[in-house]
Amino acid sequence: MDVDLEKGIAFFENTETGEKISAQADVVFATDGAFSAARYNAFQKLDRFDYSQKYIEDGYRELLLPANPDGSYKLDKNALHIWPRGRFMLIALANDDGSFTCTLFMPFDGEVSFNALKTDADIQNFFKNIPDFYDICPNLLQTWHSNPLSSLAIVRCYPWTHGKVALMGDAAHATVPFYGQGMNAGFEDCTVMYELMQKHNENGQTFLKNIENSQTGW
Q: According to CATH, what is the number of the domain 56-151?
């Protein structure tokens, strides 16, 4: 929910029980995503903290492609499946249980868009443009209505550290998920963090002071 930057205290709320707890540490790594509570409630209140957020025209909705009745995969489980259709695309990634998590990326508005799909018939007719997917997804309408339509934002901010807290991953530099850019940037964060921790003998305060001076950045 929040962090105390100077004291290194992170505040949490159990969304199921409403219980609120806190935890204190020498160093706090805020990896709470593109809409980071640590960044919003603490960093963005700092003087001279730069922050920008830009939404792109596209959103996304996840769909679930179920396994076959015997638990086997409907598609090759070792491949990334992409159905490109110009201004929109559908992707599918295999899960351990034989199902696939699918994601449709498409503009919010326009002739071909999420907002143009107003009825169940509209949805079914739209997916007939991807016939090989439509034919193997019997629960199309159910999974469509079960998952929210989500937006995509690009976040930039600076600095990424203050006091005893460091922003990492999407909390520091969220980007759109195409081609795994956000994941790769997160891996780069971990690589630079490890190198700095080794260089400064895991001294938290010295490490934090040198993050922004790193030649590669995260």
A: 3.30.9.30
